[in-house]
Amino acid sequence: MTRLALSAALLVATALNACVQTPRPLAPYSPSTGVPRFYFGADLSYVNEMEDCGAVYRVDGQPTDAFQLFSDIGTNLVRVRLWNDAEWTPYSDLADVKETIRRSKAAGMQVLLNFHYSDDWADGDHQSVPAEWLAIKNDVPALSQALYDYTLATLRELDSEGLMPEMVQVGNETNVELMAQDTRESPMPPFNWTRNAALLNAGIRAVRDAGADSAIKPRIMLHVAQPENVEPWFAKAEEYGVTGYDLIGVSYYHKWSRMDLDGLQGVVRRMVEAHPDRDVIVVETGYPFTLEGADQANNLLGEPLLPGYPATPEGQKEFLVDLTQMTIDAGGKGVVTWEPAWVSTGCKTRWATGSDWENATYFDWKRGNELLPGGRWAQHGYRWPD
User: Fold this and answer.
1) DSSP category for residue 226
2) Rounded distance, CA 188 to CA 180, Å?
3) Which string of DSSP letters, residue by residue, matches 65-91?
4) Rounded to an integer, what distance in angstroms lies between the CA atom of residue 360 and that of residue 155?
5) Whole-number Å distance between alpha carbons of 3 and 18
6) How confident is the prediction along the chain (386 residues), in pLDDT tens digits per residue?
7) In which region does residue 371 sit, left (phi positive, over 0), alpha (psi from -120 to 50) or beta (all else)?
8) Between the CA atoms of 207, 127, 259 and 312, what dihedral angle is there, to the nearest 10 degrees?
9) What pTM does this model have?
10) Which run of H or E residues covers position 156?
11) Distances (CA, A) of 267 to 22, 248, 274, 291
């Protein structure tokens, strides 16, 4: 079923589901800033593609519009990635991002736009320069200007269509130097913080300039993977004059971190204390509800599991609830789960048929992608500071 056909079929189903939804969590928006009390987020970059591949998301057995579903279960922030020119996929380009933002805003959710500044996945170990900018990779002024122009033009185009995001990431998991590799397979050169700071500041300046004439003035996030890397990275950023950003983003996956939840909480608390003018958000996290797989693709999340949190539907929910409460207690301002809608379909990735993440989504493929208990983590009765 195509996305257009699915949308028509879901109109009735969504209306039927609306009367049985659990109340959304207490996260009111400030009338002056539009900032919620707490960000309950989800990265929904894959939804358009999954629907084109035939995925249907269900609540109580009924097909439901994915973006309205996430809004109904308490999501108030949708994160979406943008690649410069990923010729290997027709998704996560500007046209696809526009559709995601449009659907998110129509469902009443804010948006965090994630510039990867790459034609491929950028992460804590890989930061490859877009092919269009390869010739100027080592010309820092020219590359900084290209990054600035691209960021500014993208945001102004979005704003002209009523799609300006409320938040913008300048880079994704920038543990290593931004755009330092020719390709993902190229060796990573020694870290040049002078170059890195110039590029980050160019992106920050572009977001500020884009927001100057917009009704929405996006808040700016810098993002580092795994909590043990956060404090030294942001100390270096300050040392080299990176400034003007509003949010500190942290990825936390137990499989790739040396820290447990207590360690994460300590990092969040110390960063909140060290940066009182910035909000700290766990902007990527996830946990498996099973160790089984639905397809040929390898499950990226699995063992080793965090002690006390089995790979079960209830274990997944308890992990998300406990992580969120610890973030609240530490003074953090949000939690965003990564790709909770990247379900298994018959479509292929570059590696295999299916999804590498279906066992860590909010949806049980054994029951037709029925919403799991973990999907309702935002609706938990959290303890809030006075």
Assistant:
1) S
2) 7
3) -HHHHHHHTT--EEEEEE-S--TT-SS
4) 32
5) 21
6) 445 545 544 443 444 343 333 334 445 555 556 789 999 999 999 999 999 999 999 999 999 999 999 999 999 999 999 999 999 999 999 999 999 999 999 999 999 999 999 999 999 999 999 999 999 999 999 999 999 999 999 999 999 999 999 999 999 999 999 999 999 999 999 999 999 999 999 999 999 999 999 999 999 999 999 999 999 999 999 999 999 999 999 999 999 999 999 999 999 999 999 999 999 999 999 999 999 999 999 999 999 999 999 999 999 999 999 999 999 999 999 999 999 999 999 999 999 999 999 999 999 999 999 999 999 999 999 999 97
7) beta
8) 90
9) 0.93
10) helix 140-160
11) 33, 11, 10, 29
- Using an 8 Å Cβ cutoff, are 6 and 56 in contact? yes
* Pair of tokens at residue 154: 């993208």
For residue 332, the one-letter residue type is G
| Residues with a known catalytic role | 173, 284
Q: Please state, in angstroms and rounded to a whole number, the distance separating the CA atoms of residues 235 and 258.
A: 20
Q: Look at residues 376, 379, 339 and name the one whose alpha carbon lies nearest to residue 359.
A: 339
Cα–chain-centroid distance for residue 78?
7
The token duo for 293 is 């797989």
DSSP code for 299: P
Q: Which tokens go with 58?
A: 């269900």
Radius of gyration for the chain, computed over Cα atoms and rounded to the nearest angstrom: 20
Q: Which residues, other chains included, contact 378 with Cβ-Cβ below 8 Å and sequence gap of 6+? A: 24, 25, 40, 73, 74, 75, 324
Strand pairing partners for 36? 29
Cis peptide leading into 304, omega within 30 of 0?
A: yes
Percentage of the chain beyond pLDDT 70 is 91
By C-alpha distance, which of 141, 161, 20 is closest to 101? 161
